[in-house]
Amino acid sequence: MVRDKSLEKISKIYFNKTYDQIEKKIASRRFRYIVKYAKGEKILDIGCKDAIILKFLDRKIDYTGIDVCKITNRILKNRGIKVKNIDVAREKIPFPKKFFDTVIMGEIIEHLENPFFTLKEVKRVLKDDGVLIGTTTNTYNIQSFIYSFISKPKKSGHLYTFKEEELVNLLRYSGFEKIRIKRICSRIPFIEINLPDKSIFKLFSTFFLFVCFKK
Questions:
Q1: pTM for the whole thing?
Q2: Total domain count, the chain
Q3: What is the DSSP string of 133-170?
Q4: CATH code: domain of residue 76
């Protein structure tokens, strides 16, 4: 139960979204890709926000979230969800070695001051056969190219943008292998029409999905 009125008000903003509303958003496509590759029972979600990804996991898991937002973390804890208030850009992940089967990093790596530090920590807490699954914005697509001509870029809070090769190199130097990068969430600019994530349509992809294993 949410115990005070301020948290209850914020809870309505963050959590009272129907499944149909979530489905209409591009985020649901990212979540479906992520859960497709998730394995095992012990899952760590870095940058979990409101833990919406739990709506897409259709099996029993031991879920733990990490986020820097104290307000949403309090709400999650009041809902019985395990969450840690950690800044992974500066702090170590507070779990022992080889603890998790899967680590998820959805739309977080581009915000980190030192992604190499965080990825090394992810490698440490992953089991030997564990998998890292993440997404990051793909700014090298037709949609971004068109927007750059018609409007000034909005401040996104992103510290980095990655090309596919750069993302692969970062993951490899951090100690991961069997790295797979996929362009996902292809869509036509300006109108809400999704495209298949294959063939020439990948030129319209808005995100990179990365899946890899520790060495």
A1: 0.84
A2: 1
A3: EEEEE--SSHHHHHHHHHSPPPP---S----HHHHHHH
A4: 3.40.50.150
